[in-house]
Amino acid sequence: MSVRKKIREINKIRDQLSKKNANYFDEVIVRVRSSRVREESGEEWLLARGQQLLTAQQRGQTAVKLFGENPIAFADTAIEGLPQRKASQTVRLYLLAPWVALSWTFLILGLFALFMKDAETVSLGMLLIVVLGAIALVEVLMRLTRRDPEEGVPAPPKFNLRGIGASLAVLIAIGIAGLLLQRVLPVVTVPYWLSLAIAAVGFVGQFVLLRRR
């Protein structure tokens, strides 16, 4: 059975649960789908627990009596024993973001340097800001992205005042740090041809990273 079909079966089971049992099961679902558990293993476990809960409900038993008082603790115990996704995908994302940002930065610097000699000078502090900013952007997006309990797939970012405030605080902190670093770190000269060469290598590297599985 495919992952998508398992999710549909889980949704059908949820529709047959009482309100209390459904609320309990929803918390378990969100907890498992928000973890690092492999999707196929997680959905298979959720489907089995849903079938188990539906059978117990037909016998007059509640989710609390079947799985325990705390749905989060119940899910966490199961998560520890389920296969986990490899961390390489997350590491690749954090590597790819600053790589892309630097590639575009050197491309722009190289193009400007073709017409303006002054554009061949670049601050190492500015390059560090580009790297930190790209990593911070990835972190913010990952925190704002949630999983839809109805579909089991990533949903559009959910913005709230706390999330927006945290994002602004991170960007302001990076900006302040960048201004301070630009006064400390040296300025180097990068000829236009070198900037364009670095950009070309960067874009080729992106293709390699995206192609790797």
Please explain how this structure is put together.
This protein has 213 residues and is an all-alpha fold. The protein has two domains: 3-81, no CATH class; 88-211, no CATH class. Helices cover 73% and strands 3% of the residues. It has a two-stranded antiparallel ribbon with strand order 1-2. Helix 6 (88-113) packs across helix 7, helix 6 (88-113) runs antiparallel to helix 9 and helix 7 packs antiparallel against helix 8. Keywords: Membrane, Transmembrane, Transmembrane helix. The chain crosses the membrane at residues 93-116, 122-142, 163-184, 190-210. This is DUF1129 domain-containing protein. InterPro entries: DUF1129.
Ordered list of secondary-structure elements with their pairings:
Blueprint: H1 3-15, H2 19-33, H3 39-58, H4 63-67, H5 71-81, H6 88-113, E1 121-123, H7 124-144, H8 161-184, E2 187-189, H9 192-211
Antiparallel strand pairs: 1-2
Helix pairs in contact: 1-3, 2-3, 2-5, 6-7, 6-9, 7-8
Brief characterization of the structure:
The chain is mostly helical and 213 residues long. Helices cover 73% and strands 3% of the residues. The protein is elongated.
List keywords for this structure.
single chain, mainly alpha, 9 helices, 2 strands, DUF1129, transmembrane, membrane, DUF1129 domain-containing protein, transmembrane helix
